[in-house]
Amino acid sequence: MRKYRYRIIIFGGLGETGREAFGDFRIEPSGTNTELTGELDQSGLHGVLNRIQALGLELIELTRVADGSGLSKGAGGQRTRGPGVPVRPAAAAAPA
């Protein structure tokens, strides 16, 4: 399966157990939340979502980064999102 770069925002910080569980990701603070960035195929994406749930963490945002470059720093050092494809939860989808 093809791998894509994903940016995942988790509510709050990660303790030692959380950092170990997501050791295959780049882990950075994002304000009061935690940003995980890594390359995953579909199976890996489902696995990381299961890890988030199993650890009782709250998922804030999940974005597939279209160009694979992740996030960049804009003018003044502020974070800017590159061209990304937001992944909307099923609950937010419009009824058919």
Describe this entry's structure for a reader.
The protein has a domain at 1-64: Alpha-Beta Plaits (2-Layer Sandwich), CATH 3.30.70. Helix content is 20%, strand content 35%. The chain contains two helices and seven strands. Residues 70-96 have low confidence and may be disordered.
Spatial separation of the terminal alpha carbons: 29 Å
Helices and strands, in order, run as EHEEHEEEE
Second rung of CATH, namely the architecture of the domain at 1-64:
2-Layer Sandwich
Structural class: alpha+beta
Ranges where pLDDT stays below 50 over 5 or more residues in a row are 70-96
CATH class of the domain at 1-64 reads Alpha Beta
Describe the sheet with the most strands.
Answer: 5 strands, antiparallel
Number of helices: 2
Please, what is the average pLDDT?
A: 79
- Overall spatial form: globular
Topology-level CATH name of the domain at 1-64: Alpha-Beta Plaits
CA radius of gyration is 14 Å
Summary tags:
96 residues, alpha+beta, Alpha-Beta Plaits, five-stranded antiparallel beta sheet, two-stranded antiparallel sheet, 2 helices, 7 strands, 20% helix, globular, disordered C terminus
Nutshell version of this structure?
This protein is an alpha+beta fold and 96 residues long. The chain has helices at 16-21, 42-54; strands spanning 4-10, 26-30, 33-40, 59-65, 72-73, 79-80, 84-86.
